[in-house]
Amino acid sequence: MLKLDPYSESILFQCGRCRRVGELFTEMIEDEGSFYCWNCLGEIRQAGRRARKDQEGLEYAAH
Ligand SMILES: [Zn+2]
């Protein structure tokens, strides 16, 4: 999902998870065709590696 920033010529990307908007590479990163902020990508990758029982702890840390 792309959004144009009215205050600059940069193309901004919206996180598919938390809806945060930022510039690619500095704030956002592409992963398997979707865009996520660094924070969400880290949590997604952790969640993928870890067992299901750790999910509650990750969601708590995000709030
Ligand atoms: Zn995010």
Structure write-up:
- There is one protein chain.
- This protein is an alpha+beta fold and 63 residues long.
- 32% of the residues lie in helices and 29% in strands.
- A 3-stranded antiparallel β-sheet has the order 1-2-3, with no helix packed on it. A two-stranded antiparallel sheet has the order 4-5.
- The mean pLDDT is 80.
- It binds zinc ion (ZN).
- Zinc ion (ZN) binds next to β5 and α1.
Tell me the layout of helices and strands.
Layout: E1 2-4, E2 11-14, E3 21-23, E4 28-31, E5 34-37, H1 38-49, H2 55-62
Antiparallel strand pairs: 1-2, 2-3, 4-5
Zinc ion (ZN) binds at residues 15, 17-18, 20, 36-37, 39-40.
Key structural traits:
single chain; 63 residues; alpha+beta; three-stranded antiparallel sheet; two-stranded antiparallel ribbon; 29% strand; binds zinc ion
Q: Sketch the topology as an H/E string, one letter per element.
A: EEEEEHH
**Quaternary structure classification:** single chain
The backbone outline, from C-alpha atoms, is elongated
Could you give the distance between the termini? 24 Å
The unreliable regions are none
**Cα-based radius of gyration, to the nearest Å:** 13 Å
Count of alpha and pi helical runs: 2
Profile the largest sheet: 3 strands, antiparallel
- Strand fraction band? 25-35%
What structural class do you assign from the helix and strand content?
alpha+beta
The whole-number mean of residue pLDDT values reads 80
Binned, the helix content reads 25-40%
Bound ligands, each once: zinc ion
Strand order across the biggest sheet?
1-2-3
Number of strands: 5
